[in-house]
Write a structure and sequence with these properties.
Blueprint (H helix, E strand, L loop, with lengths): L1 H35 L2 E9 L5 H17 L5 E6 L12 E7 L2 H9 L1 H10 L3 E10 L2
Antiparallel strand pairs: 1-3, 1-4, 2-3
Length: about 140
């Protein structure tokens, strides 16, 4: 009888551990799906030869500030081209903006702060290239 009791207790523990593991697995899957659902907005800039370093720095800071001013932006990073391949076609700056939906991206595009930023670019920007994609 004692062995049957131990067996019963062991089975109950096993089942409860299995359920707890299942709950953790589901939470990990949900977290992974949320992380995977990222819309990337890649923006490349080339600046006019007449753009001063101070003007370029002002653009860099203003773009970075959009991540603070626009809630739909989930992540932001940027950097300068340093590829030795010389295939950048004059693009020197890469900005990487992350959204969780196309609706968030679309809200960002028409946001007044984004529009103000776009207006700043005219005098100093030579060219821009934009590519959006869903993280795979």
């Amino acid at each position: 009888m004692r062995n049957t009791g131990y067996l019963l207790i062991g089975l109950l523990l096993l089942i409860s551990c299995k359920n707890a593991t299942s709950d953790v697995d589901e939470a990990v899957v949900e977290q992974t799906e949320e992380q995977a659902r990222q819309l990337r907005h890649v923006v490349l800039f080339s600046f006019k030869e007449t753009a001063t370093p101070a003007e370029v720095e002002k653009i860099e800071a203003a773009f970075a500030n959009l991540a603070v001013e626009i809630d739909e932006i989930k992540a932001f990073e940027w950097g300068l081209n340093n590829s030795p391949e010389n295939l950048n076609k004059g693009f020197t700056h890469c900005f990487f903006v992350t959204f969780t939906s196309e609706q968030d991206r679309d809200t960002y595009l028409v946001h007044p702060k984004h529009q103000e930023f776009g207006a700043m670019l005219g005098p100093v920007l030579e060219d821009v290239l934009v590519v959006d994609y869903w993280k795979q």
